[in-house]
Design a protein that fits this description.
The complex is a heterodimer of chains A (156) and B (434). Chain A is an all-alpha fold. Chain A contains eight helices and no strands. Among the domains of chain A are: 48 residues, no CATH class; 57 residues, no CATH class. In chain A, helix 7 packs across helix 8. Classes of the chains: A mainly alpha (156), B mainly beta (434).
């Protein structure tokens, strides 16, 4: 089976399943555009206010507790629950690291925020020669198809 | 393409007055001036003084109150020698789009330049996108347009991209999604000059069988080369209210994972190879002001044509984060060790920082040391220290600056200065500031 055929089948099946199973738009109220209460400094812990469930979201508040590991693995949640992330984070927040072309290293752009979990601190020019060999997939996620104009200066 | 994007953004802004009746307006900007003396052995000494302006605008409550406009971009001018070794000015429209949010079903429509993150699709495009929740837990999203290319050439991306995600959620127990991306001419083969369509399909899931256990995962299949590109799974356990334990497994087949790379000198799918890793982390919120995280990962590279890249590596370490005086004082320390496989280098990384922020004045110190097992250009260690001070002049305007000193394999003494002016104006308070 060719790739194009498989792609077409998956798109068609998922479309038919979804639309066929329920041709009706949900009546549920949308999530708010802004978090209604101001949040304190530092990483939020949703459990402090949301006891068991966040209204309109399948996942519970413990899922989104911003631990160090949550921040490192946030791709799992951003891919499923962008609608929830954007209640508190503007697109420019994500753009600090994730951009088609990033002008300044995030840890320099936010050099006054050493408490933020930012990648490539210190002499990453040296460290990337080790990290890149150990696991090139971690580089590819951000530099494989975008934000790699600086890489090309050496990796021609 | 970039000029086209900026022109489109300007065109969008001209629409604002005609659409507005009682708008909310937010403008933010960061002006950064850097001054660096670069002295690299064997090269001429350089004074680099780039000025970069980042600017963003968010206009809400346009038209019937559900329409909004979002713009963000940056422009750099080198006031001294070229900071990049290339042209002395550069810029980019990161995003610029109109968005209509529906009152129900988390429905929204976007048009312009934006980023989509839907399942396995993570793309920046000039086009349109929409999403909505459907009845009985289903949801649907779709996007189409032209992928945003890189400065260095038209072959960095394809000419048309489309994709989307369909998902189903069952209560607060299960969510499954299927997603796909099709990019016309998205794969450029530099040796032959041929272009191929990039096609990626995948799935993702999240499962909570019990309130203390969560499992999520995602996988992508590269339909253009007919092979599984990546699988990632994460298991999270919440044994106690203040303890989170997680396990992670990743598996990537580089022949398929790198198939659409536009940087083949670095990510070459023809070399093949596999990367498998597993590990985990434990986060213990010892008390409100004390957070400890320990993490470990084992990474195995195999089956590569270049046998020198095969081997088993480990990465492990711990972070301690503290806060005192109602979070005004926030110190932290961390240690990480990367043990490279045979033939790879290894390093220790030790970091310590402390920041103070009382809302009006801010200051911080941050030090990091990277100690290599084998010398890089006859140097075994890299050190960097950064001191920062800031003053919030008025709530919407803050001035801050840093001085950094570093020694590393690339520079014997590297002193850098940075001045930052941050502006953030919000016409109406709507709850938490973003």
């Amino acid at each position: 089976m060719t790739g194009a055929k498989l792609f077409g089948i998956v798109v068609a099946v998922s479309g038919m399943l979804t639309i066929g199973a329920c041709a009706v738009i949900s009546k549920q109220e949308s999530l708010p555009a802004w978090h209604p209460e101001a949040l304190g400094e530092g990483r939020p812990d949703c459990v402090e206010c949301h006891e068991d469930q966040i209204k309109g979201v399948a996942k519970g508040p413990t899922t989104f507790k911003h631990t160090t590991e949550f921040i490192r693995q946030h791709r799992f949640y951003a891919a499923q629950d962008g609608k929830l992330c954007e209640i508190c984070h503007k697109a420019s927040f994500c753009n600090t690291c994730h951009a088609n072309e990033r002008e300044i290293k995030p840890s320099v752009f936010l050099g006054n925020r050493p408490d933020r979990e930012l990648i490539h601190r210190g002499d990453y020019l040296s460290v990337h020669m080790i990290d890149g060999k150990v696991d090139p997939t971690s580089c590819y996620r951000c530099h494989g198809r975008a934000n790699n104009e600086k890489c090309v200066r050496c990796h021609r | 393409m970039k000029k086209k994007g900026l022109t489109s953004a300007l065109a969008l802004t001209t629409l604002v007055p005609s659409l507005a009746f009682a708008v909310d307006f937010q403008a933010d900007g960061t002006s950064i001036f850097r001054l660096e003396q670069r002295a690299t052995p064997g090269f001429e000494k350089q004074t680099v003084a780039p000025f970069t302006q980042f600017a963003g605008v968010d206009v809400d409550k346009l038209a019937d109150g559900n329409l909004s406009l979002h713009l963000y971009g940056w422009e750099r001018v080198d006031l001294g020698d070229s900071s990049t070794g290339e042209k002395k000015n550069d810029g980019e429209l990161s995003y610029g789009y109109l968005r209509y949010r529906f009152a129900r079903a988390n429905g929204d429509l976007k048009a312009g330049r934006f980023v989509v993150n839907e399942g396995i699709a993570s793309e920046q495009l000039d086009g349109v996108a929409g999403r909505t929740d459907l009845a009985k837990g289903f949801a649907l999203s779709a996007f189409a347009g032209a992928p945003v290319k890189l400065d260095r050439g038209s072959n960095t991306k394809g000419s048309f991209i489309a994709g989307g995600r369909g998902s189903y959620a069952y209560g607060s127990i299960l969510e499954v999604g299927i997603s796909g991306v099709h990019e016309k001419g998205g794969i450029y083969e530099p040796l032959t000059g041929n272009k191929y369509d990039r096609e990626l399909v995948g799935g993702d899931f999240w499962l909570r069988p019990e309130k203390h256990v969560e499992l999520n995962g995602r996988g992508s299949y590269d339909a253009s080369t007919d092979g599984m590109a990546e699988q990632s799974y994460q298991l999270k356990l919440f044994p106690l209210k203040n303890v989170t334990v997680s396990g992670l497994y990743n598996d990537a087949d580089l022949a398929h994972y790198f198939s659409a790379s536009n940087l083949r000198s670095l990510f070459n799918p023809d070399l093949g190879g596999k990367v498998k890793s597993y590990g985990g982390a434990v986060t213990w919120n010892v008390a409100a002001p004390v957070d400890v995280t320990g993490d470990f990962r084992h990474i195995k590279r195999s089956d590569s044509i270049d046998q020198n890249l095969n081997g088993d590596s480990n990465r492990y370490g711990a972070d301690l984060r503290l806060n005192f005086l109602d979070k005004k004082v926030r110190p932290g320390v961390s240690y990480h060790r990367v043990e490279g496989a045979t033939g790879f280098n290894s390093y220790h990384e030790i970091r310590g920082y402390c920041m103070y922020d009382n809302g009006r004045y801010q200051g911080s110190v941050d030090g990091i040391a990277q100690l290599f097992k084998s010398s890089l250009y006859q140097v075994k260690n890299a050190y960097e220290a950064v001191a920062s001070a800031g003053w919030r002049i008025i709530p919407a305007l803050a001035l801050s600056g840093e001085v950094s000193y570093s020694r590393n394999p690339w520079a014997t003494d590297d002193v850098r200065g940075l001045v930052r002016l941050t502006f953030n104006y919000i016409s109406e308070s709507k709850g938490a500031n973003k």
